[in-house]
Design a protein that fits this description.
- By secondary structure, this protein is α/β, with parallel strands linked by helices.
- 43% of the residues lie in helices and 16% in strands.
- The protein contains 11 helices and 10 strands.
- The strands form 2 sheets. It has a 6-stranded parallel sheet, sandwiched between helices.
- Bound molecules: D-glutamic acid.
- D-glutamic acid (DGL) binds next to α3.
- D-glutamic acid binds next to α3.
Length: 278
């Protein structure tokens, strides 16, 4: 695949949560075109096996390549944790970035003491990918992982503030030892809960959100490879899902605080789960 600065950027997520990453990308790269694919037929990814998530991510990447994408951003933390190596092996010509590496680099910078907690889905926690990435930047870090799957449903339900959110976040935080100075929101949905999390952990803990750090990494990545668009004016967006476009459009409002202009398309993609051999 020849590098083509005119193509859109592909953004892939298990569903609607990746819109937090899309939003940060849109703000950082106003002239770029984006094609977003949410695999709403098969979400959540957060409790699935590495083999299954890798197979889903491969299919999604191939579908997005049909739109002539110049690079792929894997917005889903779970897919970034479980599928990046197989995507890079199977599709070596497709420039591809996940959210974990930028989040880990920022975390290593932000933490003074090296005591770090990462909130993520169960599959991301099991993968060990965040701890490994943080340790590459900061070998002495003490990284604790906290699986918080229920926060995904809370955010999708629109209950990311108020007593229900506070009760559930408090229950998860009870599992932690105190003393960490940096908390990583290692899941697409968790930035919506950041105000509640902040109110419970207090002002002294740094909160790292991989959406914003990924957006600036993507900008640098495009510039370094001469892949940034030379077009001026607002870029275009296209949104595709594998099921229930209406539901996606409705939930999108919680994540973007605005409606998706131009509608959401149903993607035509085989939903088999057999992975390709890496
Ligand atoms: N997108 C997923 C992540 O960031 C959360 C939702 C899911 O489990 O599919 O890990």
């Amino acid at each position: 695949m020849a590098a083509n600065s005119h193509g859109p950027i592909g953004v892939f997520d298990s569903g609607v949560g990746g819109l937090t990453v899309y939003k940060a990308l849109r703000e950082a790269l106003p002239h770029e075109d984006f094609v977003y694919l949410g695999d709403t037929a098969r979400l959540p990814y957060g409790a699935k096996s590495p083999e299954t998530v890798a197979a889903y991510a491969q299919q999604a990447a191939r579908l997005l390549m049909e739109s002539g994408i110049k690079m792929l951003v894997v917005a889903c933390n779970t897919a970034s944790a479980l599928a990046m190596p197989s995507l890079q092996t199977l599709l070596p010509a497709l420039p591809c970035l996940g959210v974990i590496e930028p989040g880990a680099a920022e975390t290593a910078r932000a933490s003074r003491t090296g005591r770090i907690t990462v909130m993520a889905t169960e599959s991301t926690v099991r993968s060990g990918a965040y701890a490994a990435a943080i340790h590459r930047h900061r070998p002495d870090a003490d990284v604790r992982m906290l699986a918080c799957n229920l926060l995904v449903s809370l955010a999708e339900e629109g209950w990311s503030e108020g007593p229900e959110a506070e009760m559930v976040v408090k229950r998860y935080l009870r599992e932690l030892d105190s003393g960490f100075d940096t908390l990583v929101l290692g899941c697409t949905h968790f930035p919506l809960l950041a105000p509640v999390i902040r109110s419970l952990i207090g002002p002294d803990v740094a909160i790292v959100d991989s959406a914003t750090t990924t957006a600036s990494t993507v900008r640098q990545f495009l510039e370094a490879r001469s892949l940034a668009t030379s077009k001026q004016g607002n870029g275009r967006d296209r949104f595709m899902v594998t099921d229930s476009p209406e539901r996606f459009a409705r939930l999108a409002h919680h994540f973007l605080r605005q409606d998706i202009a131009g509608g959401v398309e149903l993607a035509h993609m085989s939903l088999r789960i057999t992975p390709e051999a890496a």
